[in-house]
Specification:
2 domains, 8 strands, P5C_Rdtase_cat_N, Rossmann fold, alpha/beta, binds (2S)-3,4-dihydro-2H-pyrrole-2-carboxylic acid, elongated, Pyrroline-COOH_reductase, Pyrroline-5-carboxylate reductase, oxidoreductase, binds 1,4-dihydronicotinamide adenine dinucleotide, eight-stranded mixed sheet, 280 residues
Length: 280
């Protein structure tokens, strides 16, 4: 499905890098089917060319011209500027696949040529190793075929679910930002091990393997996380003592609030484009 399509990345940051890396690693498309552009960092584009063998150019109009699928991969605050520059150079039938947090398909469509098929998605940086947790939705005018193309692109870099658009902010708070919560927990585990006397490297390796093992247990046993937690927790034992401290410090509630605040922030970011000068 993808081999005849040219995919153009408008933005060459962390997310574009993770997607290009994952797409090429999956072998679903070839480097000469990918174009990448950014705002101004030529060195960064050179890095993409050297590392992945993809086409790079500072000429955004050229990327728009050559691509069947345009991946909008700049920060939400930069989407209005990008659309002002090249939005009207798009053509009906092209697919615009946005990964920008919070920006609605309606706001995107308003800055693109009528007839462009807009799909909004929220992958995460684990796309780089083809382990993303991604959700997507088709916007107004996106055909089932356009959504299927985007599913195939994002399916190459992880698991994909389709959700109604209003739920994408919640997805952003949970799985878009989620890797950072896990990394923050690993940072804390490593630091805790060091404070308890372990050499940093040993503490790091044990913490990482613990998270990996726990994630694999969730996937392979399909057991409820609460059941797995109970199996670690002997009555009167060490885990119970540790979990008690987590509970006293509001661990569960802190995670719930973090996801909720991130989802709210996604909605706030959406207002950036809705209120941008020139937005319809
Ligand atoms: N980093 C993450 O974990 C995730 C990010 N996202 C979304 O992906 C988008 C990109 O995020 P990152 O890659 O982290 O940002 P980044 O800051 O690493 O990269 C942004 C890129 O956009 C380019 N850019 C800015 N204005 C431009 C313009 N007018 N024309 C062309 N390129 C332009 C910049 O030059 C840069 O290459 C954001 O909208 C973010 O919400 C979505 C899922 C996860
Ligand atoms: O922090 C952000 O805004 C982006 C969206 C999800 C993950 N990173």
């Amino acid at each position: 499905m993808l081999e005849d399509l040219t995919i153009g990345f408008l933005g060459a940051g962390s997310m574009a890098e993770a997607l290009v890396h994952g797409l090429l690693g999956a072998g679903l498309t070839a480097p000469d089917r990918i174009w990448v552009t950014n705002r101004s960092n030529r060195e960064r584009l050179g890095g993409f060319a050297r590392r992945f063998g993809v086409h790079v150019t500072p000429d955004k109009a050229q990327v728009v011209e050559r691509s069947h699928v345009l991946v909008i991969a700049c920060k939400p605050k930069d989407v209005a500027g990008l659309l002002a520059e090249v939005g009207r150079k798009t053509r009906p039938g092209q697919i615009a696949l946005s990964v920008a947090a919070g920006i609605s398909t309606e706001a995107l469509a308003a800055g693109l040529t009528p007839g462009v098929q807009v799909v909004r998605a929220m992958p995460n940086t684990s796309s780089q190793i083809r382990e993303s947790a991604t959700a997507l939705c088709g916007g107004p005018g996106a055909t089932p075929e356009a959504v299927a193309v985007c599913r195939a692109i994002l399916g190459a870099v992880g698991k994909v679910v389709e959700v109604p658009e209003p739920l994408l902010d919640a997805v952003t708070g949970l799985s878009g930002s989620g890797p950072a919560y896990v990394y923050a927990m690993v940072e804390a585990l490593v630091e805790a091990g060091v404070r308890a006397g372990l050499p940093r490297e040993v503490s790091h390796d044990l913490a990482v393997q613990t998270v990996l093992g726990a994630a694999r247990m969730l996937v392979e046993t399909r057991e409820d996380p609460a059941v797995l937690r109970q199996k670690v927790t002997s009555p009167g034992g060490t885990t119970m003592a540790g979990l008690q401290v987590l509970s006293e410090h509001g661990f569960h509630e802190a995670i719930v609030r973090a996801v909720s605040r991130a989802a709210e922030r996604s909605r706030e970011l959406g207002l950036l484009l809705a209120s941008a000068p020139g937005a319809d």
